[in-house]
Design brief:
By secondary structure, this protein is an alpha+beta fold. The protein has 16 helices and six strands. The protein is flat and about 95 Å long.
C-alpha cells in the first residue's frame, strides 16, 4: 500500500483501498462545528483557591465583573497568568455556580447573609438578584420612605410613623405600646368569671361563681373597665386619624396590612357601643364575634418592632413550607384521632365519643412530642 505524499489534504486510492488523510491543524476552518477549537479557559484565584472555567461561561452576563472583559482585566496577574481576587472563598463557589447554572443564586451553608450579600455586590451580579435573595432569606430591604411635602405634615408623620426619628417619637411609640398592652389586659380580664358574671349573670358557670349573690338580671356595669376601654379606644382612634391625614399616600395607607389591623381593632368598639342599650334585642353571639376582633390589637405591636416585621416577612417567604407542614400535621391529626376513637369506642366511660372530639387530644399530643424532641436534640 502506497501513499501519495504530494497530496495530504485529499483521499488517495491505491490497490482498491481508500486512505483518508487528516487535514493540517492550521487549515482547520473555525466555522466547522466538528473541528471547532475549545473555548479559552480562565484561572480564577480567590484568596489562594484556584477555580477554572470557560470564558464563554462568564460571558453570558457581560454586565457583571467577571463577565465584562475590561472589568475583569483589572485583577489579572501577568506573572502567574491568572485573575486574583482577595475575597471570600466559600462565597465564590456560589458566585461561580451562578454563571454555570444560568442565574441560580444560592447562599452557601455557613456563610452569613451579609457576607454573601457583599460578595454579590462586589462581583456586580445585579440588584434584581440581590433583591430576590433578600426576599428568599427573609431580609427586609431598606427603602427610602416617601415623605409629605408640607413641613408641618412631615413632622407629624415622622412623629407617629418613625419611632427612631426623634426622642419625642420614641416616647410616643412607648406610650402607644403601653396603651395596646393595657387594652389587651382589659380584654382578657373581661373573660374572668368574677368579672364576666357581674355584667352577664346568665353566662356560663355564673351560678356557682355568684354563690347566691343577688345581682340584677341586667347585670352590673363595671365603671373602671368602661373608662379604661374608652381611654384606649380614644387613643387608637386619634392615632389612626392623625396618621391618615398626615400620610403622603392616603390610598396606600388605607390598603396597608398594619393599618387594616388598626381599623379592625377600632371598629368593633364603635359598632357595639350603641348596641349595649339594646342588648336584649341583639344577638349575643354576634356581639361576641365582633368583640373577639378586638384581639387583633396585639398585632399593632409589630408597628413598633423591627424584629416582628422581619418575622412576618420570614413567614411570608416560607408560606409554601409552612403550608406543607400544616398539611402533614392535619393528616397526622386525622389518622391518630381515628385510631384512638376506634381503640376506645367499646369503652363505656371513654371521652373519645367521636373522631372530631379526639382532634384536640391528637393536636396536644403531637405538638408536645415535637416540642420535647427538639428540646432534647
Amino acid at each position: 500500500m502506497a501513499y501519495n505524499s504530494t497530496d495530504c489534504n485529499h483521499t488517495t486510492r491505491n490497490d482498491n483501498h481508500c486512505v483518508e488523510v487528516l487535514p493540517k491543524i492550521d487549515e482547520i476552518s473555525p466555522n466547522n462545528s466538528k473541528t471547532k477549537p475549545r473555548n479559552k479557559r480562565l484561572i480564577l484565584n480567590v484568596s489562594g483557591m484556584k477555580f477554572e472555567t470557560y470564558e464563554e461561561t462568564l460571558g453570558q452576563y457581560p454586565n457583571t465583573l467577571l463577565g465584562c472583559t475590561s472589568k475583569r482585566e483589572l485583577y489579572y496577574d501577568t506573572e502567574s497568568r491568572e485573575y486574583f481576587f482577595d475575597r471570600n472563598r466559600s462565597s465564590f463557589e456560589a458566585i461561580l455556580y451562578f454563571y454555570q447554572s444560568n442565574g441560580k443564586l444560592v447562599r452557601p451553608n455557613g456563610v452569613p447573609f451579609q457576607v454573601f450579600a457583599d460578595e454579590v455586590r462586589f462581583f456586580e451580579l445585579g440588584k434584581d438578584y440581590l433583591q430576590r435573595l433578600q426576599e428568599e432569606e427573609g431580609y427586609l430591604e431598606e427603602k427610602t420612605p416617601v415623605m409629605p411635602r408640607n413641613e408641618y405634615q412631615k413632622k407629624v408623620w415622622e412623629l407617629f410613623e418613625f419611632p427612631d426619628s426623634s426622642q419625642a417619637a420614641r416616647y410616643l411609640a412607648l406610650w402607644s405600646v403601653l396603651i395596646i398592652l393595657l387594652s389587651i389586659v382589659v380584654f382578657c380580664l373581661e373573660t374572668l368569671p368574677s368579672i364576666r358574671c357581674r355584667t352577664n349573670p346568665k353566662g356560663t358557670n355564673c351560678n356557682s361563681t355568684l354563690k347566691g349573690k343577688k345581682i340584677d338580671m341586667k347585670g352590673e356595669r363595671l365603671l373602671w373597665l368602661e373608662v379604661i376601654e374608652a381611654i384606649c379606644m380614644s387613643w387608637f382612634t386619634l392615632e389612626y386619624l392623625v396618621r391618615l391625614f398626615s400620610s403622603p399616600q392616603k390610598l396606600l395607607f388605607l390598603r396597608s396590612f398594619l393599618n387594616l389591623i388598626d381599623l379592625v381593632a377600632i371598629l368593633p368598639y364603635f359598632i357595639t357601643l350603641p348596641m349595649e342599650e339594646k342588648s336584649r334585642a341583639t344577638s349575643l353571639a354576634v356581639l361576641r364575634v365582633i368583640r373577639l376582633v378586638r384581639v387583633f390589637r396585639i398585632f399593632k405591636l409589630s408597628r413598633h418592632s423591627k424584629g416582628l416585621q422581619v418575622l412576618g416577612q420570614t413567614l411570608k417567604s416560607s408560606s409554601r413550607e409552612l403550608g406543607m407542614l400544616m398539611f402533614f400535621l392535619i393528616m397526622g391529626v386525622v389518622l391518630f384521632s381515628s385510631a384512638v376513637y376506634y381503640a376506645e369506642q367499646d369503652e363505656e366511660k371513654t371521652k373519645f365519643t367521636s373522631i372530631p372530639v379526639a382532634f384536640w387530644w391528637a393536636v396536644v399530643t403531637m405538638t408536645t412530642v415535637l416540642f420535647l424532641y427538639f428540646l432534647l436534640n
